[in-house]
């Protein structure tokens, strides 16, 4: 079953430039789907449209069967988004911020406490949750953003360069969390420049260049006896 379906999506900036050009993707339950491309290729534009941050006119995007255009609230209830540089309310402590997000999603007190403890322990940030976010490093802010994204057990987790700023252990734990989510029927869609991570982690991948998908499919079918790096470089005509 499709958790995320993008159908003929396009986004035009400045009247003529297509940042995204007739993109179609299908992310199914259980998929860890990698979205690969150079800076400026259209990754973030597409991701922001998927999560409802960026408006669009051409095409359609569905999350678990709900239209992002026509049913935005239903989509947001089951989606979580971690941008490449999360902006958190820095006047709050980590715990206050997580409580605020849990309130937004109407998460029961006992449930939220259990989930915050579970993920904070895994990401080794429990002791810092009482400190103001303004005192956090980029990596610590990223960890809080991850916990806030997971607190309502989203059906779809969308991330833009999620491993940037994470220490090796936190990066490992995030990968384990992604696997656990997908075993329960959710799906993960994320962009990354770290091709070896994508090759080991993802079961599907799409490569985008100048706003167009140049190849997509299962990792096994696309890579074959090559590496993802080789496939990527050949696809964007660099090799």
Automatic annotation (TrEMBL):
Domain ABC transporter: 4-235
One function term, GO molecular function aspect: ATP hydrolysis activity
One Pfam family named in its UniProt record: ABC_tran
InterPro entries with a match to the protein in the record: AAA+_ATPase (IPR003593), ABC_transporter-like_ATP-bd (IPR003439), ABC_transporter-like_CS (IPR017871), ABC_Transporter_VariousFunc (IPR051782), P-loop_NTPase (IPR027417)
Entries under PROSITE patterns matching the protein: ABC_TRANSPORTER_1, ABC_TRANSPORTER_2
Keyword Transferase: no
Top-rank taxon: Bacteria
Keywords: ATP-binding, Nucleotide-binding, Transport
Protein name: ABC-2 type transport system ATP-binding protein
Organism, as annotated: Butyrivibrio fibrisolvens DSM 3071
